[in-house]
Amino acid sequence: MKTLVAYYSYSGSTRAIAQELAAAESFDITEIKDVKRPGKLKAYTAGIIKSIRGKAWPIQAPDVDMSVYDRIILLAPVWAGNPPPPFNALLEQLPDGKTISIKMVSMSGKSDCSTRLEAAVKGKGCTLESFEDIKA
Question: Where is 99: in which H helix or E strand?
Fold first, then answer.
């Protein structure tokens, strides 16, 4: 099964986990990047409000064609119990029919978004293989 690891990382913690996973399993990897990286104030104010509401903001086009993968593992930090806006933007771009695993990274190892993310994945015609909260 051809697998892609796609991740968003604001501070670098999620990046390290994604790189370790991809290297251990020889998976391809791509980073989700903001069109314009927000400063800390915007990220942790407007970004958190958008996260709670499940909203997106513009991201750069992925540097890989996600349609050629059978399975996509998505990783993101947790902002106020939810994924950040760039992660939400990538969810909107998922190709139909993929198997998706989601790993949410936080200091507490807890998020409040599994039900919403499962619905978003299913709404894109994909199957949610697993959801995991990771303590970093």
Answer: strand 99-106
Predicted confidence (pLDDT) at residue 44 exceeds the cutoff of 90: no
Q: Domain total for the chain?
A: 1
CATH classification at residue 120 = 3.40.50.360
How far from the centroid of its chain's Cα atoms is residue 37's Cα? 16
Question: What residues have CB less than 8 Å from 73, skipping those under 6 apart?
Answer: 3, 4, 5, 6, 21, 27, 100, 101, 102, 103
Which residue is associated with the tokens 């950040």? 84
Is the Cβ–Cβ distance between 75 and 7 less than 8 Å? yes
CB 135 within 8 A of CB 108: yes
pLDDT in tens, 78-96: 999 999 999 999 999 999 9
Dihedral of CA atoms 65, 16, 90, 57 in degrees, nearest 10, equals -130
Domain with 62, as residue range(s), is 3-135
